[in-house]
Amino acid sequence: MFLNLIQIVFFNLFVWIIKPSLALGLSLLYYFTYSTIVFTDFILSLFVRDCDLRNKNFINNLRIKVNELRPYPGVYTSATDMITEKGYNLEIHQILTEDGYILTAWRMYKNIKKENKYPIILQHGLLDSSWSWFINNTNEQTLPYILADQGYDVWLANNRGNKYSMGHSKIPGVCYNKKYWDFSFDDIQRYDFKAIINHVKQASQKEKVIYIGHSQGSTQAFAYLSNHIDFQENLKCFIAIGPVIYVKNSKSLFLQFAVKSWIFEFTKIIGIPYFFVFDDSFNLKIGALCDMIPWIYRKILFTITNLICGYPLQNKIDLKKFGFMVSHEPGGTSTKTLVQWMQFYRNGTFSYFDYGKSNNILHYGQSIPPKYNVENLGQLKIPKYFYIGTKDVIADEKDLQKTIPLFDPSTLQIQMIHDYAHLDYVWAVDAHKKLYPNILQNIEQNQIF
User: Mainly resides where (predicted)?
Assistant: First the structure.
């Protein structure tokens, strides 16, 4: 009798007090965060060109005059215009995956002199986009420009959910539709990798492609090939820069903090389905502020980059271009994808998404998620080239000691790049001297039919 009374009291306490209080607290947190973003966006709009679209009041007219004196070069140029203005041909391709997601790929070339050569796919990393390959934006320093100038057919792919691949054949209003964002790394490797390869082959009318993956761009290839080893027949060679399978020993301070604080799991619970997916106008405002007040914003944003990816003391990023960078970056992804990367770190395994014991049984027929069949990667006979930075805190040495033995050493070449961190492969001002000549050599070696 007494126990029943206690149960009734606690049940009513939970239903009428605890649960409503939690719901109210989360709602208040959500609306406070949303209001803060809207207010910040309004303040920023007073300083950048977005106000041209608003009513011409005194403050806006004053701001326009200020911007005429300091136009923030590169910040307001769209990524595609930036490419075409340099004299390159650009095609925008829409790619439909088997599960209905619409991906975007940029096909870029100058004059395809090497018509009998294999097309080249550049696949970005986590939270990046196809634009991340253009950070330096000079013909001498930018890998896509270098390849196009050599006469190659260059394809820059975008995974689902980043700022350039926001579409679905059946789900409407994808920006705010949680069903659209209910994808993980498992879906990226299962559908996006295959769809991109097959589309490039069909559009270029070639039997094979050369695949270059940065960070997660390499991981999604490893994952898909571990389950479909015969798919290697579609690849002439595989170039992995900053290759990642295991991240248990990552020294990224941000990653360590995110794992310990469960920040992405909490973000998912309160109903925020995506991360770092910003409206273009917001990126433009941040980019303009980096140029307006560089001593504050460049330092803050560069510090955040350091915490995530790590940089040597003598960094290789041109901070003068930071406003230009953040006006287009990051690309973003689903919160669920980031949660899975936290699981990779926390569990020390390369496994499918962990839904919890009961839901794992529904999804996989077992209480723990299955691991990827990485032992099959030893059957990957195509030429492979790994480029690894000595300062890379994401692709850590201890984790690489587990990764490298998975592959056939007779078809694998590894090159260490001194003093390179995880973004230096793409962002460094000297990558065109320390890295890209070797990649060009790898490509030339595999351009023989």
Answer: membrane
